[in-house]
Write a structure and sequence with these properties.
Layout (H helix, E strand, L loop, with lengths): L8 E3 L3 E7 L10 E6 L4 E6 L5 E5 L4 E8 L6 E7 L8 E8 L29 E4 H6 L7 H5 L14 E4 L2 E2 L10 E6 L15 E6 L7 E10 L15 E13 L6 E21 L11 E7 L2 E14 L3 E17 L11 E19 L2 E18 L5 E4 L3 E3 L6 E18 L2 E19 L6 E4 L2 E2 L5 E3 L1 H6 L5 E7 L2 E20 L2 E12 L8 E13 L4 E11 L4 H10 L4 E7 L26 E4 L7 E13 L3 E20 L20 E24 L2 E14 L19 E2 L6 E9 L7 E8 L3 E2 L26 E2 L3 E13 L10 E9 L7 E4 L11 E4 L4 E9 L1
Parallel strand pairs: 1-7, 2-8, 10-13, 22-26, 35-38
Antiparallel strand pairs: 2-5, 3-4, 3-6, 6-7, 9-12, 10-11, 12-13, 14-15, 14-49, 15-16, 16-17, 16-18, 18-19, 19-20, 20-21, 21-24, 22-23, 24-25, 25-30, 26-29, 27-28, 29-34, 30-31, 31-32, 32-33, 33-36, 36-37, 37-38, 38-39, 39-40, 39-41, 41-42, 42-45, 43-44, 45-46, 46-49, 47-48
């Protein structure tokens, strides 16, 4: 059936079946399919399976409309006629539904009397969506869509373990296909759904292409060279760079295997680049008035990714696929740049293998089960560029060595199962997921040779007696740390969750979606009951203008990731013996304490510990908000939303064995140990925000999506690894949060996209991130944290310069045959420019008040770069 919108189907059967595809022939999984009778009522609802197939069995007869919709596509309506079958469940002909791509569309669903269900929670228009067509047309640097879309995420919605990533509905740590094999990327699709662990603004959903039933593919080559770049603002000479990316996919039927198809994708990225170092390595002299050292350090990277998928349709109700994904990447001199010298770099080798099994089972005309099993193995090896003690001169430079030798190996099992059921006014989802059931092995040789910290020496008034550089020149460190003891650690990270939610359509204009979620993790021995109620609603104020009021809220418990688990395994019982020595440069011998054994006997020093606060609770945040959306233009939607967030029982770290004020900060309460780091759920943060966003096609000349956000966040903690300035008064830290960027703007737009004279833009502008003024010294607290601030100065009182980035792209596809159909082979060329304005986007600053470069930007984002690309598609 070439035109499913206009060609009626006469089906003398009570079974409607077919396959859903996009204009390129690629299968569209999980498309919403509704059978609507002549009165406008929905008689059956389901989703296409993993291979795009669907089948509806119904006893109804008469004239019907089959309505198929999916995010990123225009809705297709196909008339069908159902007659009483000669035999029960007699199948009619296969319908081939082709969904035209709508560049910036959102999800649309069907309800009685209306072809678009604006009350559906997943129809939330406050969603950032990038389709496969957008990825080809927009200025996306290196085709790295995940980094590009992360500009539309909200740091306040992330957990201790970071932001959320779902690939085809399953939690993941990366996409297992290359960029061209991605169908769609979404953020905030359903902000208050109990199905997801994270709030909508804190997770990214990636939908990959499915294996198709005919041959189709795409091959891309991307190139850039420093000869086309602008000069880096902090480099003495232009940094060298050359990037070559070979990427693509192909899909089609498997020969001699009925109802089977394959998808293969690959990515090979080769980048030769320089890291830019700007550090202060000596006191100012007549030949070097600033004392600064500038250098370009070679830091090449290589990345190879490959995946292959085989899909099969088992009868009318079950489709499944198996996939293997491979990644191997290397990098040299990682960590170098800014105030970190070449000696402080390290080399990295990462390898990952994934085996994935996925099945979609149509249990009935109104019930679908989707299940996935993922086996994951990864290995991360880090090796110091130079083997030597690390040298940290506060506010000036880091060198000597990275002291980062380690090998991490993970064996992980992920499980996911979701059942969707529609009955009358109810759309119910229940499911369970296990994102981590893993065994981790960590070979730890970090800081084996130790780290010397050189800080300024201050007098009783806080004035500088000798600078950090002067103490470095005379070998008078202020502190020394070193790790010895056990080097191999085995630990387990275990997490699981279950959920249930019901979208209840109370009227044609109002629906409510209550849900509840339960999560468990093995980080805490007690207080593991983490039930999270969620609720959202949608009220259609005006169907003609698509004006909808939405709102909702809920609880979101925190996850901790593997880092805190590893710290407990290593340091709770001092299996990894971590030493922390506070040294006073004024009392050291004239020739100093380098090596430190000139001044102390390391074997006599007490070790550090790490522990959880007894009866620690699971942190959580409360999120709630309202939004109003309205359609305009050809198919565009504008949204104004406001939200509030409150974080409760947030983790921080406190040294409960810090030197006491009663001893003038010279003696620890328990001399048997040095620092005792206690992870405490005692912190709080609050915040409010407002978004103004749009997406869609305004007219034939302009389409795009964008978002402006104003927000303000305050807190008294900065995460589980953060220590307060004064360990005796950890609550005296209320200030702006580190993620408190008041204004953020992100927008992608395409002008004249159907013409050879097209232009695509990316515009990003943010207020600067906060930073804290520090003395660089250990006084008056002598806890060797070196995070003291000048008297009367709060956290995060300063801000980095603003960030401004304008990207542009032109591209055009040339058909290689006389046929101009979407599936005909074509060759495309494009040119993009990134940071066109060559704005100096500072990313780090010297925070140490006594440093000669205090307040100066020490690291910037790349200057203007040109990217050339070629694409072959068939």
């Amino acid at each position: 059936m070439d035109n499913p919108e206009s060609t009626p189907g006469s089906t003398p059967s009570n079974v409607v079946r077919g396959v859903v595809a996009d204009p390129s022939g690629a299968i569209v999984p999980n498309a919403q399919i509704d059978l609507v009778n002549a009165a406008g009522a929905v008689t059956a609802t389901l989703h296409s399976d993993g291979t795009g197939n669907f089948q509806i069995t119904t006893p109804a007869v008469g004239d019907f409309t089959l309505v198929v919709s999916e995010a990123g596509f225009d809705t297709v309506r196909t008339p069908v006629k159902l007659a009483k079958p000669i035999a029960p469940a007699l199948a009619g002909p296969m319908l081939h539904i082709v969904l035209p791509i709508s560049t910036m569309a959102t999800t649309v669903n069907v309800n009685a009397g209306n072809s678009v269900d604006l009350t559906a929670s997943e129809s939330n228009a406050d969603t950032s969506v990038m389709s496969a067509n957008d990825l080809k047309a927009l200025p996306i640097f290196d085709n790295d869509y995940s980094t590009a879309m992360s500009a539309f995420m909200d740091s306040s919605a992330e957990g201790t373990g970071g932001a959320g990533l779902l690939v085809d509905g399953v939690e993941a740590n990366r996409a297992t296909v290359s960029a061209s094999a991605v169908q769609e990327v979404r953020i905030n699709q359903d902000p208050y759904s109990a199905q997801y662990y994270w709030p909508g603004r804190g997770q990214m959903e990636i939908i990959t292409r499915s294996a198709a039933d005919h041959y189709h593919g795409q091959f891309n080559f991307t190139f850039r060279d420093s000869a086309l770049n602008a000069q880096n603002a902090l480099a003495a000479t232009k940094p060298y760079e050359q990037r070559r990316v070979y990427e693509g996919y192909t899909t089609g039927p498997i020969p001699h295997a009925k109802n089977s198809s394959f998808l293969v994708s690959f990515n090979r990225a080769e980048e030769d680049q320089d890291a830019v170092v700007l550090a202060t390595t000596e006191a100012p002299t007549s030949t070097n008035p600033t004392g600064q050292f500038q250098a370009n350090v070679s830091a090449p990277t290589r990345d190879t990714e490959f995946s292959t998928r085989a899909a099969h349709q088992f009868g009318d109700r079950v489709s499944a696929y198996a996939q293997y994904a491979y990644q191997d990447s290397t990098s040299q001199n990682e960590g170098v740049g800014g105030q970190t010298l070449a000696a402080g770099g390290y080399n990295n080798h990462y390898h990952e293998d994934d085996v994935i099994f996925h099945a979609d089972t149509t249990l009935s005309a109104t019930m679908l089960n989707q299940s996935s099993i993922v086996f994951e193995h990864d290995r991360n090896e880090t090796q110091n560029a130079i083997e030597a003690p690390q040298v940290n001169v506060s506010g000036d430079f880091v060198g000597g060595s990275a002291q980062n030798d380690s090998t991490s190996t993970e064996y992980n099992l992920r499980l996911s199962d979701t059942v969707s059921w529609t009955r009358g006014k109810h759309s119910v989802k229940v499911g369970a997921n296990v994102p981590h059931l893993d065994r981790r092995v960590y070979d730890d040789n970090t800081n084996g040779l130790g780290t010397y910290t050189f800080a300024p020496t201050l007098d009783a008034n806080g004035d500088v007696v000798t600078s950090a550089l002067q103490n470095y020149a005379t070998n008078h460190p202020s502190g020394f740390t070193q790790n010895t003891g056990d080097v191999r650690f085995v630990y387990h990270q275990q997490e699981m969750g279950v959920f249930a939610q019901d979208q209840y359509k109370m009227t044609d204009r109002f629906s409510i979606t209550p849900g509840i979620r339960y999560d468990w993790q093995n980080f805490l021995a007690t207080d593991r009951l983490t039930f999270s109620p969620r609720v959202s609603f949608a009220w259609v104020l005006d169907p003609a203008s698509k004006t909808v009021l939405r709102g909702g809220g809920g609880l979101y418990y925190d996850r901790f990731g593997g880092g805190p688990l590893l710290d407990l395994v290593r340091y709770e019982n001092a299996r990894r013996r971590s030493l922390t020595l506070s040294l006073n440069p004024a009392t050291q011998p004239a020739d100093g304490c380098v090596p430190v054994t000139n001044c102390v006997t390391l074997g006599d020093q007490p070790a550090n510990l790490a522990q959880l606060q007894p009866n620690a609770k699971v942190p959580y945040q409360i999120q709630y908000g309202l939004s109003v959306e309205r359609g305009f233009g050809k198919s565009a939607v504008a949204v104004i939303s406001a939200y509030s967030v409150r974080g409760v029982d947030r983790f921080r770290s406190v040294d409960i064995n810090a030197p006491t004020p009663q001893s003038n900060y010279t003696e620890r309460p328990n001399p048997e140990f040095a620092r005792i780091r206690e992870m405490q759920p005692e912190g709080t943060f609050i915040g409010n925000g407002m978004d103004i966003s749009f997406h869609g096609e305004l007219n034939k000349y302009f389409t795009g999506f964008g978002r402006y956000t104003w927000s303000h966040f305050e807190s008294n903690q900065e995460g589980i690894s953060w220590f307060p300035q004064n360990q005796q008064d950890p609550n005296d830290e209320w200030a702006n949060s580190s993620w408190d960027r008041r204004n953020r703007l992100g927008m992608y737009a395409i002008f004249n996209h159907q013409s050879v004279a097209n232009l695509a833009l990316g515009i990003f502008a943010n207020s600067g991130s906060p930073w804290t003024v520090q003395t660089g010294a250990d006084l008056p607290y002598n806890d060797l944290l070196f995070n003291a601030r000048p008297d009367g100065v709060a956290r995060n009182t300063e801000t980095l310069p603003s960030y401004v980035d304008l990207d542009v792209r032109w591209g055009h596809d040339f058909h290689l045959t006389q046929s101009k159909e979407d599936e005909s082979p074509k060759l495309g060329f494009s040119a993009g420019a990134f940071n066109v304005l060559n704005h100096e986007n500072g990313s780090a600053v010297d925070q140490v008040e006594s440093s000669t470069s205090f307040g100066q930007v020490t690291s910037v984002a790349p200057a203007r770069r040109i990217q050339l690309a070629m694409r072959f598609e068939f």
